[in-house]
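Sample 3 of the quickstart, ligand S-adenosylmethionine:
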Amino acid sequence: MNNYQVTQWCRHFMEEAVAEGDLCIDATMGNGHDTCLLSRLAGSRGHVYAFDIQPQAVENTRRRLIQEHCPENYTLLCQSHTNLDTYVSPESVSLITFNFGYLPGGDHKLATSAKSSVLAIQKGLPLLKRGGRMVLCIYSGGDTGFEERDAILSFLKTLPSREYLVIKSDYYNRPNHPPIPVLILRL
Ligand code: SAM
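Result:
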């Protein structure tokens, strides 16, 4: 890791967790950076399901996957991530990533929201296989306010510690409201 931006911090945990042939979910496709990474890590024998509510995000991601010569191992869904449990079976997924917020360069009003984000995390956790991971980049302040951050963190606090290890990191000396990277390990 050569810089410590929240997205790179989160990608570090994806790279560690995903191997050739794995099943992965990108719950917030956006411009497709994470979908591309997961596609490459999972390889031609693996598969990536990626979700976004905006057609623009799906288009941007498809373009990026083609430009970067990623293996054709992906399904891009213009749907809310609250549907993620309809595509894969329980205990089958190696990695699920959420990068909350809005599409960079897009409409800030179409950002993720507290209720659907918590529901999607809740539905996603049982899909992880033992040893599987969920990686979250949580933002607050600015457009997104604090409601989503607080709802997600309150929910994570309730997860049974025998089943999930939740590690929340902190950009401790950064002013204002730095992003919060969270790693959840299914035990
Ligand atoms: N990880 C992305 C990348 O690599 O470019 C960036 C994701 S961006 C910060 C957040 C995305 O979440 C936006 O594109 C937004 O449209 C999407 N989003 C908002 N609500 C959603 C929902 N309910 N289900 C899926 N995606 C959603």
